[in-house]
Amino acid sequence: MEKKFKRIGVLTSGGDAPGMNAVIKSVTCAAIDFGVEVIGILGGYSGLINDRTKVLTEKDVSDIIAKGGTVLYSDRCDEFKTEEGMQKAIATCKKHGIDGIIAIGGDGTFRGATDLSIRGIPCIGVSGTIDNDITATDITVGYDTAMNTVLSLGDALRDTSESHARCCVLEVMGRHAGYIAMETGLALNAIGVAVQEMPFDKEDLFKKIITMREKGQRSFTVVVAEGMGGEFGEALTKEIEAVTGVEARFNRPAHIVRGGIPTLADRVFGAKCGYKAVELLLDGVSDVVICARHDKIVPIDIKWALIVDRMYKNKLKDGDLDAFTPEQIEEMKALCEERHNYFVEMYKIVNSIGC
Ligand code: ADP
Question: CATH number of 7-142+262-315: 3.40.1400.10, 3.40.50.450, 1.20.950.20, 3.90.1310.10?
Fold first, then answer.
């Protein structure tokens, strides 16, 4: 019997994340092991449109697992959102005999993948985003490394804050999601954490800082999620100084948090997801994203994953739920509640033990 898949493509798209290379390596080696050739598409969907590709061998990926960023490069490509761009991408797939694609990225990338799947190129998504903002999966590739990077920066800042008896306000990436801020806030012994998922009581924060200073504490850390918006962190820093009398400094490491050597957790999770994606794609599965759910690696329908994201962010549009059964909608609601409860629980702990 003739094999359906002779060649598959792999690409990274949207914001880069440490651990993407572990996925690329795993996809490449697993596919070759299954007797399938791998084409690396350079620069995400724009590479697909503009035919920038290269064959990937095991040797090409033999030592990329420890590297941050993505060896396939990443890009944002608006042309891919048009029918014309989509047809150019399909033409590239036909030209190279690419029978399916594994697309590593965030929700935008998965939107692109589902559009391609509908047009006859089977696609499977693997998460690659530091933000952990894909509701369908408990964790995303890149999240763990980003948190560990913030941890190192926050610890270093605490050293200097302690020397100078200051409060450091640390703003961390995460787009609209407060996961990085919440977890690192707890680990950095932050006296306050501000994330958009939870109400933020700044008067309470000022009171805590004043009380702890009266007790003799020299340094403080406050972690603010990027999702709180442009000037929030800087304004809060000034207010802390004005209200509490504690000298305060604002720090925004920004993109530094996206780079760096991937942690063990991201390498392992990335490798597992890549392998699973190849197994499923060659098995005829398409239009799913590989997710971690309660310690299992499972495929989740991309459309389900995209809609549950919208539900979680209160951004559902009319008709979004029409294609789903009442059971599926219940499942979505339960997942959104689980995610919300995570923040409630974490916020309680942070506010109780942070000082
Ligand atoms: P991320 O994947 O990290 O969420 P983006 O939202 O920037 O990053 O999306 C990455 C790329 O995915 C976009 O530049 C575009 O090429 C593609 N994409 C995003 N949304 C769509 C869409 N609705 N249809 C087709 N392609 C899309």
Answer: 3.40.50.450
